[in-house]
């Protein structure tokens, strides 16, 4: 039986993305794995043929073909139903895993007695150019848990966790644009220990056509609702979530929020370049969409929590030295 089951959905990703993604998994330093690929686009013949060629060369690849487009959640749940590994690793068809990703994540998970971990990322453009590197401190499990109640801080494509957690939660729920955050909050609710490996182990491709870009307000509203109802998160239904979100996710609100996010991101870039325009943009963004104010609040709260845990770790170090 394989130690790790890697699950990945394929929809309309370009061939060149798929090649890099697939080979990054097959060339892992930790090779005791099975690679379950769910093809969610019956018309994507080129992808099917290419993946079939890889399957013929490497018996670790398992291919599942959906007869019609079912979406990411259903595809991942199909992959989970076939998984045989002790651990589940997520992968997206347009991202690239470093060769030592699984080896490092498994080591980090075991050393810190965790149930599911992510990792730090480098963001790359659609052409593969490195945009930013997102190396994090190795925050303790308690800090990660506290900040997760404010924002999703574990990138979905980087997940590496015990199979037992996915079984306990019965896989993903079909909460459009926030199924991953819902999963993490439910995991937290049942006492799972979550973390983020501080090493950069993946290249995360920024897709301008992705869900987070085109449905950013919907994602914001859905995540906010899940946080506010965390105490009874298992009882939240898809119908209830959609009903609440659709009241506020109007076309006008969505367009304004998208514009405000663009201003916000440009403002951050300007600040990094020490431009005064960065401050002006960050002040202007909430005027375009008031939902940005909630984003500012969450950033402030997370920084405050992290600072507290950093200070705690420093005081512990002083105590030990004394």
Description:
This protein has 322 residues and is of the alpha/beta class. 52% of the residues lie in helices and 17% in strands. Strands 1, 2, 3, 4, 5, 6, 7, 8 and 9 form a 9-stranded mixed sheet that branches. The termini are far apart.
Q: Main attributes?
A:
322 residues; alpha/beta; single chain; globular; nine-stranded mixed beta sheet; disordered C terminus
- Could you spell the SSE succession in H and E letters? EHEHEHEEHEEHEHHEHHHHHH
The low-pLDDT segments are 315-322
Question: What proportion of the residues is helical, as a percent range?
Answer: 40-55%
Q: Sheet bearing the most strands, described?
A: 9 strands, mixed
Query: Over all CA atoms, what is the radius of gyration?
Result: 20 Å
Alpha plus pi helix count: 13
What is the number of E strands?
9
Which assembly state applies to the chains in this document?
single chain
Mean of pLDDT: 91
Shape: globular
Distance N to C terminus: 49 Å
Q: Structural class, from helix and strand content?
A: alpha/beta
Question: What topology emerges from the helices and strands here?
Answer:
Blueprint: E1 4-10, H1 15-26, E2 33-39, H2 45-57, E3 61-65, H3 72-82, E4 87-90, E5 96-97, H4 101-111, E6 116-124, E7 130-134, H5 141-148, E8 160-162, H6 163-168, H7 179-189, E9 194-205, H8 211-214, H9 216-228, H10 238-248, H11 251-272, H12 276-288, H13 291-321
Parallel strand pairs: 1-2, 1-4, 2-3, 6-9
Antiparallel strand pairs: 4-8, 5-9, 6-7, 6-8
């Amino acid at each position: 039986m394989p130690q790790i089951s890697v699950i990945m959905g394929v929809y309309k990703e370009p061939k060149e993305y798929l090649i890099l993604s697939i080979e990054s998994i097959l060339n892992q330093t930790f090779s005791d794995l099975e690679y379950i690929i769910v093809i969610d686009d019956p018309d994507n013949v080129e992808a099917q043929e290419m993946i079939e060629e890889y399957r013929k060369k490497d018996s670790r690849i398992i291919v599942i073909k959906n007869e019609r487009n079912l979406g990411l959640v259903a595809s991942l749940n199909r992959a989970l139903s076939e998984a045989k590994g002790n651990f589940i690793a997520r992968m997206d068809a347009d991202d690239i895993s470093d060769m030592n990703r699984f080896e490092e994540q498994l080591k980090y998970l075991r050393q810190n007695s965790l149930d599911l971990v992510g990792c730090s990322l480098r963001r790359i453009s659609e052409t593969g150019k490195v945009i930013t590197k997102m190396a994090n401190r190795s925050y303790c499990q308690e800090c990660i848990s506290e900040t997760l109640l404010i924002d999703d801080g574990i990138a979905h494509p980087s997940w590496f966790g015990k199979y037992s957690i996915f079984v306990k939660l019965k896989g993903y729920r079909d909460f459009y644009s926030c199924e991953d955050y819902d999963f993490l909050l439910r995991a937290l609710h049942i006492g799972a220990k979550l973390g983020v490996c501080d090493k950069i182990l993946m290249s995360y491709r920024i897709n301008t056509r992705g869900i987070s870009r085109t449905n950013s307000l919907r994602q914001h509203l859905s995540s906010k609702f899940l946080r506010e109802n965390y105490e009874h998160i298992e009882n939240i239904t898809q119908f209830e979530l959609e009903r609440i979100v659709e009241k506020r996710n109007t076309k006008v609100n969505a367009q304004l929020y998208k514009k405000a996010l663009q201003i916000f991101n440009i403002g951050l870039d300007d600040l990094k370049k020490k431009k005064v325009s960065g401050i002006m943009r960050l002040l202007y963004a909430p005027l375009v969409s008031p939902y940005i104010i909630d984003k500012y609040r969450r950033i402030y709260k997370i920084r405050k929590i992290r600072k507290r845990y950093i200070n705690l770790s420093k005081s512990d170090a002083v105590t030990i030295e004394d």
